[in-house]
Structures are given as C-alpha cells and as structure tokens.
Amino acid sequence: MAQFIAGPSTLCLLATFGAEDAQPAGFLIARAAGDEAELLTIGVVADLRKRGVGRALLRHAVEALKASGIQALFLEVDETNAPALTLYRQLGAEAVGRRPGYYENGGDAAVLRLDLQS
Ligand SMILES: CC(C)(COP(=O)(O)OP(=O)(O)OC[C@H]1O[C@@H](n2cnc3c(N)ncnc32)[C@H](O)[C@@H]1OP(=O)(O)O)[C@@H](O)C(=O)NCCC(=O)NCCS
User: Fold this and answer.
1) Residues 70, 37 contacting (CB under 8 angstroms)
2) CATH number, domain at 21?
3) What is the pLDDT of the chain when averaged over all its residues?
C-alpha cells in the first residue's frame, strides 16, 4: 500500500463520513499508465456500506482521471462480488474479459472497462 501511495502515477482517495468528527469511511487507489488507468482497490468500512460512499469515491476518481487525460479505467473484480459488480456497472463499466482462476481461492475475475471519454 505504502509503495502504491508513494507512486508518481497513483491516485489515492480517502472518504470521510459525518460533518463533525468525521471518521475515515473508505478509500480508493488507482494507477495510471499512459492514457489508461487501473483500479487497484476500493473499500468501504463495513458499518458504512450502502450509503453512497463507494459511488462517491468512484465518481471523484473518474473526474480526477478525466482531468488528467485518462481515456479508460479498468476494473478487475471477483465474479461473485455482487456489490462491487453492481456499483461498477451502475457507473457504466462494461465487461471486456475474464481471468479464470485469478484469485487464490480459485475464483474467476471479471475485467471491466469504464469509458472516460464521454
Ligand atoms: C463494493 C463496495 C466498495 C461498495 O461500497 P458502498 O459504499 O457500500 O457502495 P454504495 O453505497 O456507494 O452503493 C452504490 C451502488 O452499489 C451497489 N451495491 C452496493 N452494495 C450492494 C450490495 N450489498 N448488493 C448489491 N448491490 C450493492 C448498488 O447498486 C448501489 O446503488 P444503490 O444504493 O443506488 O442501489 C463495498 O461493498 C466494499 O467495500 N466491499 C468490500 C471490498 C470490495 O469488495 N471491494 C471491491 C474489490 S474489486
């Protein structure tokens, strides 16, 4: 994580929840290469899920990446991860591939692409 955060082409976002005494609620790390970027990780504190934090993180990331001239964001996700898949699709990401056996437990990954040009 420290290595990713220190990287020159890395976007790191921390979301907080609550107006006063705001507490960390979630984070996102993406890495750019050329005119494409890859979502490395996104996570929301379990107690604060389903309140729009994940969507807000992704929307901010999309705006920041667009402003840097990035054309597309790639996302890799466990095919059984319904919350993440639904969130990505809701924002317009489309499946472009599969990685069978990608995860240590033998699970398959879906590769999604979010077009940032529009
Ligand atoms: C995936 C994750 C980041 C979503 O964060 P979140 O803050 O709960 O998501 P939001 O509240 O912004 O939800 C946005 C949309 O995602 C979808 N979604 C979120 N949680 C969902 C769930 N449990 N089941 C189905 N869809 C879900 C919904 O479409 C939702 O929109 P809606 O509320 O208008 O229906 C969160 O569940 C998480 O941290 N999961 C564990 C880590 C993880 O799996 N990261 C992704 C690795 S690729």
Assistant:
1) yes
2) 3.40.630.30
3) 95
Work out whether strand 36-44 and strand 10-17 pair parallel, antiparallel, or are unpaired.
unpaired
Structure tokens of 31?
């890495």
- Residue 57 alpha carbon, nearest atom of ligand 1: 12
Question: The domain containing residue 25 runs over which residues?
Answer: 2-115
Q: Kindly report the pTM of this predicted structure.
A: 0.94
- Could you tell me if 116 and 65 are in contact, meaning their C-beta atoms sit under 8 angstroms apart? yes
* Residue with CA nearest ligand 1 atom 37: 83
Cα of 23 vs centre of ligand 1, distance in Å, is 19
Q: What is the distance in A from the centroid of ligand 1 to the CA of 75?
A: 14
User: What is the spatial order of strands in the sheet that 94-99 belongs to?
Assistant: 10-17, 23-33, 36-44, 72-78, 109-115, 94-99
Residue 7 has pLDDT above 90, yes or no: no
Domain count, the chain: 1
